[in-house]
Amino acid sequence: MLRPIPFFCFGFLALSSASLPAPAFAQNNQPRNLILFVPDGLRALKVTPDTAPAMAALRDKGVNFKNPHSLFPTFTMANASGMSTGHYLGDTGTFSNSIYTGRPVTSVASQAGTVVPFIEHNQILGEVDEHFNGDYLNEETLLKAARDAGFSTAAIGKVGPTFLFDHTERTGTKTITIDDQTGATEKDGKLIGIPLSDDMKAALAAANLPAVAPGRGDNGKAGDSKTPGTTTANAKQQEYFADVASKVVLPMFKARNKPFVLVFWSRDPDGTQHNQGDSLNSVTPGINGPSSLAAIKNADNNLAQLRKALDDLGLAATTNIIVSADHGFSTISKESKTSSTVKNTYPDTPEGFLPLGFLALDLAKALDLPLFDPNNKNAPVGPNTYPKAGNGLLGKHAVSPDLVVATNGGSDLIYLPKKDRKLARRAVNALLEQDYVSGIFVDQRLGRIPGTLPLSTLSLKGKAVTPHPAMVVNFRSYAKGCDEPTLCSISIADTVLRQGQGMHGSFSRGDTMNFMAAIGPDFKAGFANELPVSNADVGITAAHLLGLKRKSKGILLGRVMTEAMPNGQVPKSFAGTIAGKPAANGLQTVLKFQRVQQQRYFDVAGFPGRTVGLPETAKTAGAK
């Protein structure tokens, strides 16, 4: 059984430098190379010699991180910020993929005017940087620190998280950036993507590779309520990225004869699992159909190609490889018995299903507040319609909202710009009445509200310069269709995607259990690591292996995974729970976590019985 831990607030402390082993290369004064490979949305237990032979071999011959953790909320940009800085979200301010910035963005036509931008976009990231003193992360990133230290650096793959690793470098001359937007231009010919240096253009031409990244093709088709989504993996686009990395960038780095850092962010299996058309409006097979399996193999092929290139170039012996997915994955459910929205009709929404933006719609009705759409020029949201992107501004005036909903998927963010404590309690009480909610985290400055836990419990309160959310609302999850819950997790999701397609973001173990492994000269061989690790640890460990010295503004840091290194320290771990005060209806937010020294790792959280990995207990058996 888990050892109960008293209810309190805590932060994360990094191990002091005196307690850490020196990087292995210090003995021969020869810095190692590093490749960080991110198979977006890959579930840990989905990797087998049959489904993903290259990743299975790396895991089994190197370090198998058997107890991995995504950062919550379990979204791409949130975890990219953790990997790129080594900090938790309370410091990076990247609380999800869509966040409230307090200022409208104007750089992208499809998002013009919104104060709740979707930040998986290089132009949006640049504009948000401008809004927050040139660097909204407010912490030095891995690739920036590496290039300042003399390393060659490159980031290749999925637009958004790829660029985040050196997002203040927009010239293309210091760090090579190749993603979906590479070579893309607007109608007036203005470049959208990060530019390529002349050397990079010449190298691409010599390798017979275009200077414009291909699109996703059929893989980008999500379908609708009557039309299935894609049944093909993102093979063409990722083949291009893998070719650029293996045939151009790695040979270029080899010729420079100095150490390098390469981040390769594979959109698959995430992109295909989101859009897959194997399971329209049905939760089975969900994300376990043939399209998702093809996407896992696609990412695996990319890794195999990179490793072969290292072998061919004679770089394998001096290169560490860390593989870490940003999050796990779940199948989408759009079912509820309590939401007012399931009794109405909405465009492109099957009868009885939750529409996009259901949280904003339900809160607007419960709080009796007008609802405006920040993604539609702040227009009022009329009857039987939903906000264009699900986001909502609640209050009498759209430009001065009382409450903001940032819609993301398996969890949503709520902001209270006026810090209204009474409104916070009213919102929590409304949320406690919905069967799709499973756990609420609230800024402690709004008071301790029954049924909730503080945001600081999850290290979501720190030095971030972007607005901190007032609440994070986790959605219900359950398992169906297989014997291993993390492989058949089903989650309510606030998204335009359909029931049966894929999503993440919740606090289920299906979403927090990402795939992690490592291999290389500074890692143990054939080692199964039972200790908990996280994506923040990936960022800190990568910097440690490279010998980088970074000054942190915040203290919400990961730890160096010393137990995975030869002769490294193997600390002890503990497990515990934290439970908030029950609400009047008996619901209480419960968190299961593990601890290594002062570091805490979040397994699952929510209302017992409503989250995969958090079974209903005798104490809460009568909860509504």
Detailed description of the structure:
By secondary structure, this protein is an alpha/beta fold. Among the domains are: 212 residues, Alkaline Phosphatase, subunit A, CATH 3.40.720; 171 residues, no CATH class. It is built from 14 helices and 26 strands. The strands form five sheets. The protein has an eight-stranded mixed sheet, with helices on both faces. α2 runs parallel beside α14 and α11 crosses α12. The protein is globular and about 65 Å long. The two termini are 24 Å apart. The N terminus and C terminus are likely disordered.
Tell me, what is the CATH class of the domain at 64-90 and 137-170 and 232-327 and 514-568? Answer: Alpha Beta
- CATH-level-4 superfamily name of the domain at 64-90 and 137-170 and 232-327 and 514-568: Alkaline Phosphatase, subunit A
Low-confidence stretches: 1-19, 24-28, 618-624
Helical region count?
14
Question: How many angstroms separate the termini?
Answer: 24 Å
The residue-averaged pLDDT reads 94
**How does CATH name the architecture of the domain at 64-90 and 137-170 and 232-327 and 514-568?**
3-Layer(aba) Sandwich
Structural class: alpha/beta
Strand order, sheet with most strands: 6-5-7-2-8-21-3-22
CATH topology of the domain at 64-90 and 137-170 and 232-327 and 514-568: Alkaline Phosphatase, subunit A
DSSP summary, beta strand count: 26
- The Cα radius of gyration reads 23 Å
Helix content: 10-25%
Question: What is the makeup of the main sheet?
Answer: 8 strands, mixed
Shape: globular
Strand content: 15-25%
